[in-house]
Design a protein that fits this description.
Elements lengths: L1 H22 L5 H23 L8 H22 L5 H7 L2 H13 L6 H21 L16 H21 L5 H23 L2 H7 L3 H29 L2 H5 L5 H11 L6 H19 L2
Helix pairs in contact: 1-4, 1-10, 1-12, 2-3, 2-8, 2-10, 3-7, 3-8, 4-12, 5-6, 5-7, 5-13, 6-13, 8-10
Length: 291
C-alpha cells in the first residue's frame, strides 16, 4: 500500500510543474501561489470544520508551522522560480526534499546523521550546482521567454521548508488523521492567501478581461485540487504509515514525470542537466540506504 501511494504521489506531483507553467502564462507568480492555496483550502474547508473542534490546542502551532513552511511559502517560491526556470528542471530540483528532510531531521529531531548520509547530502548539493551553474535554466521555454538558472535557488529554499514540514508532521502530528492534518492546516493558511488574492492582486480583473485567463485558472485549479489538496492528504497518510525519509522518496520518480511533460512542451534538457539529476538522485539513494 505504501508503494502504491508513493507512485501515485509521484505522478500527481510530477505533473504539477507543467500546470504551474501553464498558469503563469496569464497570472503572476504571487497570484498563482495565492490561487493554489486558496482553492485547496476552500475544497477541504468542510473537512476542516468537521475536525477543527477536536484538535488539541497545543497542536495548532505545529499545524500553522507546517502549513506556512510546507505549503504557503513553497507555493509562491516554486511559481516564482518557474518564471525563469524550465518546469522539468524545477521537478528535478524538487528531489532536494529528501536531502533536507534528513538534514532537518538530524538537526532538529534527533535523526542519526551517519557518514554515508552526509555523503548523500553533499552529492545532492553538488548535483544542484552542476545543473544550475553548468546546465543553465533549460532554454527559453519559460512563461516569460527568459531564463535564469539562479532562480533554482528559490526551489532550494522551498525544499528546506518541505523538509521541515515533513518532520513536523511525522514527529508532532502523527496521531492526527491525514485528512484532519491537511484540512485544518490549509484552513489556517487559506484565509490569508484568499485575502491577499482578492485585495492585493489583479486576479479578478484578469479573470474578467484577459483572454485565456479562465483556461489558465483551470490549470491552477487542477494544480490546487490534485497537487495540493488530494496529494497532501495522501502524503500525510504516507508519512504516518512509514518514515519521513520513505515518504520523501517520491522524489525519485517526480523528476521523470516532470521532465517528460517538459519535453512534450519543448523544454531543453542538456547533458549537464542529466548529469546533475543523476548526481542528485544518487545522493538521495545513498541517504535512503545508509544506516
Amino acid at each position: 500500500m505504501a508503494w502504491l501511494l508513493l507512485i501515485t504521489l509521484a505522478c500527481i506531483w510530477g505533473t504539477s510543474f507543467i500546470l504551474m507553467k501553464k498558469g503563469l502564462l496569464v497570472f503572476s507568480a504571487m497570484e498563482l501561489g495565492a490561487i493554489r492555496v486558496s482553492v485547496a483550502a476552500l475544497l477541504l474547508l468542510p473537512f476542516a470544520l468537521r475536525h477543527v473542534g477536536s484538535v488539541e490546542r497545543s497542536r495548532f502551532k505545529w499545524l500553522a508551522l507546517s502549513g506556512v513552511v510546507g505549503t504557503l511559502i513553497p507555493a509562491f517560491l516554486f511559481a516564482y522560480a518557474e518564471t525563469r526556470l524550465a518546469s522539468g528542471l524545477a521537478g528535478v530540483l524538487n528531489a532536494l526534499t529528501a536531502v533536507f528532510t534528513l538534514l532537518v531531521g538530524a538537526l532538529l529531531f534527533g535523526q542519526r546523521l551517519t557518514g554515508l548520509r552526509v555523503l548523500g547530502i553533499a552529492l545532492g548539493l553538488v548535483g544542484t550546482v552542476l545543473m544550475l551553474q553548468l546546465g543553465g535554466s533549460g532554454g527559453d521555454a519559460t512563461p516569460t521567454g527568459e531564463g535564469n538558472a539562479w532562480y533554482g535557488l528559490y526551489i532550494l529554499v522551498a525544499t528546506i521548508g518541505y523538509g521541515l514540514s515533513v518532520n513536523v508532521i511525522k514527529h508532532k502530528l502523527n496521531n492526527m488523521t491525514p485528512v484532519a492534518v491537511t484540512s485544518v492546516l490549509l484552513m489556517l493558511i487559506g484565509g490569508p492567501a484568499l485575502a491577499y488574492l482578492l485585495l492585493a492582486t489583479d486576479f479578478l480583473h484578469k479573470l474578467a478581461t484577459q483572454p485565456g485567463a479562465w483556461v489558465a485558472f483551470g490549470y491552477i485549479a487542477l494544480l490546487a485540487t490534485m497537487s495540493t489538496a488530494v496529494a497532501m492528504v495522501l502524503f500525510n497518510r504516507l508519512i504516518q504509515q512509514s518514515t519521513a525519509l520513505f515518504a520523501s522518496s517520491s522524489t525519485y520518480l517526480i523528476p521523470i514525470v516532470a521532465l517528460a511533460w517538459g519535453a512534450l512542451d519543448g523544454e531543453a534538457f542538456n547533458i549537464w542537466h542529466f548529469t546533475g539529476m543523476v548526481v542528485i538522485l544518487a545522493g538521495v539513494l545513498i541517504i535512503h540506504r545508509a544506516k
